[in-house]
Amino acid sequence: MGSTSDKISGLANEAVGNVKQAVGKATGNDSLHAEGVAQEVKGESQQKVGEAKSAVKDGTDKLKDTAHRNL
What is the pLDDT of residues 2-45, one digit of tens each? Predict the structure, then answer.
């Protein structure tokens, strides 16, 4: 998965997780609430992976540019 895909999936998981938490809390469904918390954490992790991939790509792009200028 690319960095953008990871970020989008992460945002979606976070949003769904927040909804599950709210519904679980409103209905007294502890299982649904816990599922929402887990999904939100998964989403946050996916976004961090996407950000890391972007940072690595930016770094390698800068190295390539520097190498080409020095040739």
Answer: 899 999 999 999 999 999 999 999 999 999 999 999 999 999 99
What DSSP assignment string belongs to the chain?
A: --HHHHHHHHHHHHHHHHHHHHHHHHHT-HHHHHHHHHHHHHHHHHHHHHHHHHHHHHHHHHHHHHHHHH-
8 A C-beta contact, residue 46 and residue 6: yes
Q: Count CA atoms within 13 Å of residue 32 on its CB side.
A: 13
Listed by start position, the domains of the chain span: 3-70
End-to-end CA distance of the chain: 33
The tokens 């599950």 sit on which residue?
A: 20
64 CB neighbour count, 10 Å cutoff = 10
